[in-house]
Structures are given as structure tokens and as C-alpha cells.
Amino acid sequence: MLCDFTPSATVAVKNLKAARSFYEDILGFEPIGSTLRGAQAFKVKGATVVIYESQFAATNKATAVTWSLGGHFDDMVKALDASSGWPKEG
């Protein structure tokens, strides 16, 4: 059944334009197709991450997407801090 299909991570954002810039320009995600109805899909290492505009963005205090960084965690945090790429909201 569903185990035969590949899942995608889906993340709500407050501002699609700002979030798309963050995911593309800062994180380097490759957009798939064009923005459609307030959503944008990205190809990430064989997986798909979808961002969509929602009034409920940033209200979830749970994890939405996880990457296994291993020993690269501290370096990744430093690189993101240096890029000033942390989104201010959604």
C-alpha cells in the first residue's frame, strides 16, 4: 500500500517568496517545476521537500524535517549562521 510509494517532507511557511529564497539560495535546494497554488517542491538528494504557504506556519513546535549530519552538525550550524540565512519567520 503506502509503503510502495516515496514520501515527501511538507513544511508550512508564512511567506512563500522569502522561504523559497532561503531554501534555494541558502540551502541550495533544487526547485522542481514552478510555484503552483502557494507551494514549491524541491529535489534534495533523491527526496522531495515541499514548502507551502499557510496561516498556521511556525505554530508547530515539533520536528518537520530531519537530516543526518553526523560529525558535520557544528560546521553546518556555523555555515548557516555565517550566511545570515536563518529565516526570520516561516
Structure description:
With 90 residues, this protein is of the alpha+beta class. The chain has one domain: 2,3-Dihydroxybiphenyl 1,2-Dioxygenase, domain 1 (Roll), CATH 3.10.180.10. It is built from 2 helices and 4 strands; from the N terminus they run βαβββα. The protein has helices at 16-26, 73-82, and strands at residues 9-13, 30-36, 39-44, 47-53. It has a 4-stranded mixed sheet, with helices on one face. A hairpin with a 2-residue loop joins strand 2 (30-36) and strand 3 (39-44). 12% of the residues are buried. The mean pLDDT is 86.
Secondary structure elements and pairings:
Elements: E1 9-13, H1 16-26, E2 30-36, E3 39-44, E4 47-53, H2 73-82
Parallel strand pairs: 1-4
Antiparallel strand pairs: 2-3, 3-4
Descriptive keywords:
globular; 90 residues; 4-stranded mixed beta sheet; alpha+beta; 2,3-Dihydroxybiphenyl 1,2-Dioxygenase, domain 1
Helix content: 10-25%
Q: How much strand content do the residues show?
A: 25-35%
What is the N-to-C order of secondary-structure elements (H for helix, E for strand)? EHEEEH
> In angstroms, what separates the terminal alpha carbons?
33 Å
- CATH homologous superfamily classification: 2,3-Dihydroxybiphenyl 1,2-Dioxygenase, domain 1
Which structural category do the helix and sheet elements fall into? alpha+beta
What CATH architecture label applies? Roll
The major pleated sheet works out as: 4 strands, mixed
Query: Which geometry do the CA atoms define?
Result: globular
What is the CATH first-level class name? Alpha Beta
Task: Give me the number of helical elements.
Answer: 2
Please tell me how large the radius of gyration is. Answer: 14 Å
Question: How many separate structural domains?
Answer: 1
In order across it, which strands form the biggest sheet? 1-4-3-2
Please mark out the parts with pLDDT under 50 across 5 or more consecutive residues, or reply none: none
Q: How many beta strands in the DSSP annotation?
A: 4
CATH topology: 2,3-Dihydroxybiphenyl 1,2-Dioxygenase, domain 1
